[in-house]
Amino acid sequence: MIPKDGLIPALLAVCLAAGCAPDLREPDVSAAHGERLYLQKCAVCHGNDGTGAGVASLGLGGPPPDLTRLAARNDGVFPETFVMSVIDGFNRRDHPSSAMPEFGNEDLGPMVQVEEDGLSTPIPSDLIALSAFLESIQQ
């Protein structure tokens, strides 16, 4: 039996052993962080400048989309929710981007609560940062 004064440390130890510890990293949702992530994970296909001319794009059956024109193709409005859902991989079965890896299966950083229209949604910080970077390179 665990004494009462040892209950909290015991529960914490069980939680840590089970991998359910909270992510204590400070969330970085900046476009600068997003650019670093982009260069690590996306540039190989989408190119360093986001125009779709990355070396790994050869043999995909077509070039990846020009990420600098996302807002232009959406009546001048950057489609933030769409962009994050494509990066994450959420509901991409019939989308041309299905050749793209589902980054939602990876660690996308600590969750950040984002409020919109009175609804609070947890979104991984790296996903927000990538979206912020892509919005910053729109032409």
Question: Overview of this structure, please?
Answer:
With 139 residues, the chain is of the alpha+beta class. The chain has a single domain (26-136), classed as Cytochrome Bc1 Complex, Chain D, domain 2 (Orthogonal Bundle), CATH 1.10.760. Helices cover 34% and strands 9% of the residues. The protein has helices at residues 7-17, 31-41, 43-46, 80-88, 125-136; strands spanning 111-116, 119-124. The longest helix has 12 residues, at 125-136. The protein is globular, with a radius of gyration of 19 Å.
What is the topology?
Elements: H1 7-17, H2 31-41, H3 43-46, H4 80-88, E1 111-116, E2 119-124, H5 125-136
Antiparallel strand pairs: 1-2
Helix pairs in contact: 2-5, 4-5
Domain Cytochrome c: 29-138
GO molecular function: electron transfer activity; heme binding; metal ion binding
Pfam families: Cytochrome_CBB3
At CATH level 3, the topology is Cytochrome Bc1 Complex, Chain D, domain 2
For the largest beta sheet, what order do the strands appear in spatially? 1-2
Strand content: 5-15%
Q: Which CATH class?
A: Mainly Alpha
The string of secondary-structure elements, in order, is: HHHHEEH
Number of domains: 1
Structural class: alpha+beta
Q: Count the DSSP helices.
A: 5
Q: Would you identify the CATH architecture?
A: Orthogonal Bundle
Q: Report the average pLDDT across residues.
A: 82
Instruction: Tell me the helix content.
Output: 25-40%
Tell me the Rg in angstroms.
19 Å
Uncertain stretches of 5 or more adjacent residues: 6-18
Number of strands: 2
Main sheet record: 2 strands, antiparallel
Shape: globular
Q: State the separation between the terminal residues, measured CA to CA.
A: 65 Å
